[in-house]
Amino acid sequence: MTPNKRLALTLPSPDGTVAGSIAAAQQAEALGYQDVWLADAGGLDALTLAPLLLEHTKTLRVGIAVIPIFTRTPAVLASTFSVLAQAYPGRFIPGLGTSSHAIIEGWHGLPFEKPVSRTRETMALLRTILAGEKTHYSGEILRSHGYRQAAIDVPVYLAALRPRMLETAAEIGDGVILNLYPRGALPKIIDHIRVGAERAGKNPDTVEIVSRQMTVVTEDKASARAAFRATFSAYYSTPVYNKFLAWCGYEDAAREIREGWASKDRERTAAALPDELVDDIAFIGSAGECQQNISWCADQGVHTQIISCVQPSADIYSNTVKAFGAEQFVI
């Protein structure tokens, strides 16, 4: 079955609180959004916040983009997924990803090694456990023996950036999560997803593609671009995102960001994201301009658009969220 086109809101809320996130989810539901998708990069734990959002809404699907595979074992993930899938059937979508060197090595003090292999082994164990089978697994990285829980049907999505992981995500995951891509690279991203799906014998059209879309509805484009640079120049300095930016066709910008960050020149790093590149990644402008870009992504094959306001002053956040409510926009 081909996935429906869906509009989603990214959470936690700009104030970073549980109460604010619940209120934002309820507002999104009232406006006609179909989903909310949580980030899990520190602060509010997404796997703890998800059931609160599910409990305080009626129909929203709650996804996570993404849970780092290095910070929880497959048995812990499977047992958590089982609780949420039983309590809220059909409304919870866990998304797994490798995260980045900065988070895994810097925040958690764990080695960021062989991310694609770890993803494959994590998914192999999860499939066994979620099927209700006892584990008997010794991989290159992971091991589990003798663990069993009741079978539960829950889809697991995988985040991906470059070709190998894009194909792997489509091959072994139930959906693919994208982030921070220049729009010019989207067609080849979709092509690799199709290759991975076909390798697994799947119809590529049935693999849901989810993307967090950095969006700012504003008349002050310069300020919004500056906010994007302040937030994401550090992202693109990390090895995984820097290589991704280069693969997307921005080799010079990637090199300048990498060198600027290494020399601790934050102004140089931010300046390496020129207006043209920012505008190729983020949706900044009037409601109509942003809606047009979201529609373009949907037409290219992205099924679920996660609106993420990257300049969350109260007025701008409100205008951005309302611009994609059902009364203003139909995808």
TrEMBL record:
One of its GO terms (molecular function) is oxidoreductase activity, acting on paired donors, with incorporation or reduction of molecular oxygen. It comes from the Bacteria. Residues 18-303 form the Luciferase-like domain. Its EC number is 1.-.-.-. Coiled coil: none annotated. It is an enzyme of class 1 (oxidoreductase). Pfam families: Bac_luciferase. Keywords: Oxidoreductase. PANTHER family: 5,10-METHYLENETETRAHYDROMETHANOPTERIN REDUCTASE, PTHR43244. This is Coenzyme F420-dependent oxidoreductase.
